[in-house]
Specification:
- With 344 residues, this protein is an alpha+beta fold.
- The protein contains 6 helices and 13 strands.
- The chain has a 5-stranded mixed beta sheet with strand order 1-2-3-4-5, with helices on both faces. Strands 6-7 form a two-stranded antiparallel ribbon. The protein has a two-stranded antiparallel ribbon with strand order 8-9.
- Strand 2 and strand 3 form a beta hairpin.
């Protein structure tokens, strides 16, 4: 026992809230998590060649979704804990007819729920205390959002996690069974999609503009003045769309607050977006077909991450490392190397 404790103490683990820049490191862990999920449940079948990096990056942009990463002493990400929260009570803006429909469909009082999208730690790092700190971080966040319940779905064979959750005050609420059916690909399938209300019409400022919507409610995200927000693809000085190497438009990446995961607005009430990265020839840079943007700069304030601002109050973004001849420095796998400001 002494040797085990000594080994754990020499390999400390820390956790922090993930940022969009962590998507590449989290992706293989999410893939391994999905493979374990598939092996435990015959009804869950993975799509071939699924893009987990894109999936993780999308999850990290969702409001009210949070991900904590577990880091080994060498700053390598060895685990993650993805959570999301939602309110079963319909939003106040829901039309009265739909509100009545929701009341008829739900016999139970609505809950404010904290739920788990996924928890995974590499097998060689599955120390109880390391896993516990991830779970406790998620619990603390859920409690700060004033949830009434936390729901966790655990596989039957994960007895260790079940015991840990019981020690943390969770109670076993249900046992889930599943039965899988193989349906022929050419079978005629009856629709299982219920009708849904039409989305409100909005007039985009440009044909290629897309409205920004809340992924949980599908409602339009609005500026502080109440006007809907549209993401407009990048254009050149002549007003022509700037396209990627695959002839796709380039939409800016909105900035999110690392603490509350909310959209960020500047002093004039406009949505703040990450600036696109250009090379020494002023060409937009890509990596494996994905356009690169300057990531936000952070600072450490009272033990928590906060978006950094310059002297004029503008949000700051990381610059790139450059060679003496001005060329941008890349890692061995082709990733752009950004200057990381010191966290103080």
């Amino acid at each position: 026992m002494v040797n085990i404790l000594s080994k754990f103490q020499t390999m400390p683990y820390t956790h922090r809230l993930a940022t969009p820049e962590d998507a590449k490191a989290i992706a293989p862990l999410m893939s391994a998590f999905a493979e374990e999920r598939e092996s435990a449940d015959p009804s869950m079948i993975l799509k071939p060649k699924y893009d987990f990096e894109q999936y993780v990056a999308y999850q990290l942009t969702k409001p009210l979704s949070f991900c904590w990463v577990l880091e080994h002493s060498n700053k390598t990400i060895v685990g993650f804990f993805f959570t999301y929260t939602y309110d079963e009570k319909p939003p106040a803006t829901l039309p009265e007819e739909l509100r009545q429909h929701q009341e008829r469909e739900n016999p139970f009082h609505p809950r404010r729920v904290g739920s788990v999208l996924g928890l995974y730690v590499q097998p060689e790092h599955r120390h109880p205390e390391a896993i516990k700190q991830l779970i406790e971080a998620g619990i603390q966040k859920a409690e700060s959002l004033k949830v009434t319940d936390i729901d966790v779905l655990i596989s039957a064979e994960q007895t260790g996690i079940q015991s840990l959750l019981e020690r943390l005050g969770f109670q076993k609420a249900a046992v889930q069974y599943t039965r899988h059916y193989d349906i022929p690909k050419d079978a005629e399938l009856p629709s299982l999609h219920p009708p849904h209300p039409e989305l409100p019409e909005v007039t985009p400022p440009a044909p290629s503009a897309i409205p920004l919507r809340d992924p949980h409610t599908n409602e339009l995200v609005r500026k502080p003045n109440g006007k809907p927000i549209f993401l407009i693809p990048l254009q050149d000085e002549k007003g022509q769309l700037i396209l990627t190497s695959e002839n796709l438009p380039i939409y800016p990446t909105p900035l999110r607050d690392p603490k509350e995961n909310n959209w960020v607005f500047d002093v004039s009430g406009e949505l703040v977006v990450c600036p696109v990265l250009r090379d020494e020839n002023n060409q937009i840079m890509e990596h494996q077909g994905i356009v690169q943007f300057h990531p936000p700069a952070y600072e450490l304030v009272q033990g928590g991450l906060r978006l950094k601002r310059d002297g004029q109050g503008n949000y700051a973004f990381c610059e790139v490392e450059r060679e003496k001849d001005g060329k941008i420095v890349r890692s061995p796998d082709g990733m752009v190397v950004f200057k990381q400001p010191l966290l103080v």
